[in-house]
């Protein structure tokens, strides 16, 4: 499901073109890692943001991202400017909050912001929305959300293209499977919000529970 989310969100809403720059947040997560690799497969530049140096190295060295930046670094914006010399054409956003604000500062003319999710905001009573949304006017840009279930009748087409990329070595995926019982579910879920996963986080129940 996360792969399909990456596929339709990026291609249908982000519409990346060869040579353009795509920036994806939570890039080492299940959706984000696929977004970056699809961008590359379509000839665009892929820049990811993640919460640790280890995750950034994984994105560049293992998955072939053009660049990956630790959004917790004090020099994050300066680094972002360096790796996006022609500004950003597509922001594929999984986290929302202040990080999205920072990326919007770097949005280019005709840019597209794909609202996939807002992990940084799910536990907040008051949602932090973009304070600099007027960039959408000055940059003639658009911001659009989507829900994957609306694409159900096109899943087969996405799977066929993604299997082709996997066979060609252009698309890799990583799973993060933890053993536990029902009582462990809250603490395992919480790891997503602590950034402790790389790839798709799943919980495996003991065999006795089926
Ligand atoms: N629109 C749809 O139809 C659809 C479908 C499926 C999923 N989604 C959404 O897509 C997003 C990604 O899903 P996923 O399964 O791939 O999750 P995920 O990215 O595997 O897991 C969450 C990651 O988000 C990052 N994160 C957590 N808190 C953060 C914060 N405060 N600021 C910045 N980054 C933070 C962490 O990585 P770092 O190390 O980078 O901090 C963490 O590893 C979610 O928001 C989900 O709700 C939308």
Describe this structure in words.
The protein is 37% helix and 20% strand. It is of the alpha/beta class and 210 residues long. The chain is globular, with a radius of gyration of 17 Å. A 6-stranded parallel β-sheet has the order 3-2-1-4-5-6, with helices on both faces. Strands 7-8 form a two-stranded parallel sheet. It has 2 domains: 166 residues, Rossmann fold, CATH 3.40.50.720; 35 residues, no CATH class. The model has no long low-confidence stretch (mean pLDDT 95).
Structural features:
single chain; 210 residues; alpha/beta; Rossmann fold; 2 domains; two-stranded parallel ribbon; 8 strands; 37% helix; binds NADP nicotinamide-adenine-dinucleotide phosphate
Which assembly state applies to the chains in this document?
Answer: single chain
> Could you give the distance between the termini?
22 Å
Strand order of the largest sheet: 3-2-1-4-5-6
Number of strands: 8
How many domains in all?
2
**CATH homologous superfamily (4th level) name of the largest domain:** NAD(P)-binding Rossmann-like Domain
Helix fraction bin: 25-40%
Largest beta-sheet details: 6 strands, parallel
Return the CATH topology of the largest domain.
Answer: Rossmann fold
Bound molecules: NADP nicotinamide-adenine-dinucleotide phosphate
Under the CATH scheme, the architecture of the largest domain is 3-Layer(aba) Sandwich
Strand content: 15-25%
Would you state the CATH class of the largest domain?
Alpha Beta
The SS-based structural class is: alpha/beta
Overall outline: globular
Taking all Cα atoms into account, the compactness measure Rg is 17 Å
Q: Overall mean pLDDT score?
A: 95
Q: What is the H/E string? A: HEHEHEHEHEHEHEHE
- Spans where pLDDT lies below 50 across 5 or more residues: none
**What is the number of helices?**
8
